[in-house]
Write a structure and sequence with these properties.
The protein is mostly beta strands. The protein has one domain. Helix content is 8%, strand content 52%. The chain has 2 helices and 13 strands. Strands 1, 2, 3, 4, 5, 6, 7, 8, 9, 10, 11, 12 and 13 form a 13-stranded mixed sheet that branches. The longest helix has 12 residues. It is globular. The mean pLDDT is 96.
Length: 206
């Protein structure tokens, strides 16, 4: 069996401009987003990671995207924010993984990308406890979400299973408590508590 050239695992969460519950994931990206377009920021905290001998433990990155219509129709604009603590070699490794250049789950999204808007380096602060997650990346991204619970007595969030999402096939359902994106020409601000979020552990290799 061939040895993986890279592997990363940790925690992921996102918010988007769709109303809760986002129609995109449950329709395999075919449905029209709530606002007509999709704006989202997918944040990843790497707990353990290595690419060809380059250690990535403790670093983070955020994939910011916009689609002009249903996600399956393509023409996505995508940019990547990389933790400023990363060395140049670490940043190159993260970019290869986050963009799909190194293979793995993100490579499946590559055909949908019409414009790669570039890379920014910012201090990324990511936190979460299994029910609430938040992340900031300078002034570019500031978002948080709370788990959607089946009842006040529930101990686990409601979730979608067997989905075709690059982060995980099981996504916890959440509501965005704040969602601010101002990066790569993509702008979105909301604190209504009515927008969508997801979170999950992720484990990738290539």
């Amino acid at each position: 069996m061939a040895t993986a050239k890279w592997s990363v695992e940790g925690q992921y969460f996102e918010t988007c401009n769709c109303e809760f519950l986002c129609p995109c994931v449950s329709s395999n990206l075919a449905a029209r987003p709530s606002e007509g377009d999709c704006k989202a920021a997918l944040a990843f905290q790497i707990e353990r990671g290595n690419k060809e001998g380059v250690t990535l433990d403790g670093l983070a990155f955020i994939v910011v995207l916009r689609t002009p219509g249903p996600m399956a129709q393509g023409n996505w604009t995508v940019g990547v924010i990389i933790d400023e603590r990363a060395t140049t070699i670490q940043a190159d490794a993260i970019l290869a993984i986050a963009s799909g250049q190194a293979g793995g789950p993100m490579a499946h999204l590559a055909p949908a990308i019409g414009t790669f808007a570039g890379v920014e380096r910012r201090p990324i602060k990511f936190s979460g406890d299994g029910k609430r997650y938040e992340v900031t990346a300078g002034t570019l991204v500031d978002q948080a979400c709370d788990a959607a619970m089946a009842s006040p007595a529930a101990t686990e969030p409601m979730a979608l299973v067997n989905v075709g999402h690059p982060a995980s096939s099981k996504l916890a359902l959440a509501r965005a408590t704040r969602s601010r994106i101002h990066a790569f020409g993509i702008d979105w601000d909301d604190s209504s508590g009515k927008r969508n979020g997801h979170f999950a552990p992720f484990s990738w290799q290539g």
